[in-house]
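Annex B, item 7. Sequence and structure tokens for protein A, then protein B.
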Amino acid sequence: MNENLMMMRRAKAQLANKWVNVAIGSLIYLVIIGVAGSTSLLELIVYGPLTFGYYLYLACNIDRGENNLNLLFKGFERFADTLVAGLLMSLAIGIGMILLIVPGIIVSCGLAMTFFIMVDDPNISGIDALQQSWNMMRGQKWNLFCLWFRFIGWILLAILTCGIGFIFLEPYMVAATQNFYRKLRYGTY
């Protein structure tokens, strides 16, 4: 069976009986990011800390069944590191997208493990996490792109629900990507 399909099935199993909790967490995360997006500067400031917190929230929910919504805001306790990681990721991906879409996708895949690394290592700096992500993804970007591409149907379906479906799709995609990260880092998920 295809490894990406196995990661997606594992993500579904990890989220079983937790869908309501993670949907609430996703709703909070997506609303804050959406509201912050109305002001580009505010979005750049909150993106890193909130994304770190969201990944931490999902990891704790999946691994320990811990449904603590306060974890969504833990990135603000590491504000400098998560801000730097978020800003540099946004800048690099933005430049890649301006050059052409493909370089932006390559950069996005290369830096995708940054916040997973930061969740695993509370002492790593944002810059070091970005470097580790880039190194970890050497030779793996296509595999991650293929995993993400498997969600295209779900993304279209979420759009058809006027975006409401994203509160369920977001944790599913992040959990599958976390499985990808853990497979690379630890050899298993």
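Protein B:
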Amino acid sequence: MLNKYLDIAPEVKAALDEGRPVVALESTIISHGMPYPQNVETALKVEEIIRECGAVPATIAIIGGRLKAGLSHEEIDYLGKTGLAVTKASRRDLPILVAKGVDGATTVATTMMIAAMAGISVFATGGIGGVHRGAEVTMDISADLEELAETPVMVVCAGAKSILDLGLTLEYLETKGVTVLGYGTEELPAFYTRKSGFGVDYRMDTAEEIAKAFHVKRALGLRGGMLVTNPIPEEYSMDADVINTAIEKAVAEAEEQGIHGKATTPFLLAKIKEITGGSSLDSNIQLVFNNARLAAAAAVELAKLSK
């Protein structure tokens, strides 16, 4: 059992034992998503926001081969300083990293896995991975989508990153039976922007509605998670033409340089930040804060229903 390799932080374990709300957070955003020290400042601020909203944060990572559900400030700082030298860990990487006793920053997929092992039902992130552009040739499809189909965790995000093929990502999720909810919207948000031109399955207007939907899914015995998409706040939303132009340039450069696999997303995000003069990073930080608030509110409501 992988659980023997799992360490749950005392604060997180106490909350889970008492049926109090807990929100999982990924660590790839710390090591691969932002430069130091903004990555650490953002991670600690997200934890603070979750506490202010009445839940307990559980940042998840692999440290020295141990699966961690809840990190100390020192561990978050360590991941932030080590940065790209930390392995970006998806499902396939877990057994190797644990066997070798080394570090890993968890993607959406591995954060869901470790959260589920620990008994955490709600997870806040920036954006999920999905079907990459040109996947009909490359077969580059994020493991996040398979995890959403299998693992019973609600994922709150700002949609799929707009570097992806959003239409195919939604088709894949539909095939896998993953319900996609829009918080206050009927349109899939596209990470940096509020609109994508693609619809979600259902609109939900309150955290209570979202929690009830997930509670009923579990009560029905249906496997897998649920995707809650939360548009970036209007004041931080980027101009669609500006960001789409930046994405096109970044994708073309990635193709020229032969970037593929798990190196693709960090490369594209860094290149988009460079092209937009850093404004994409500011938007990224704000949407993560926004998702943390909604995830905490949903976790609070879910805890009430689970009693």
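Comment on protein B: The chain has a mean pLDDT of 91.
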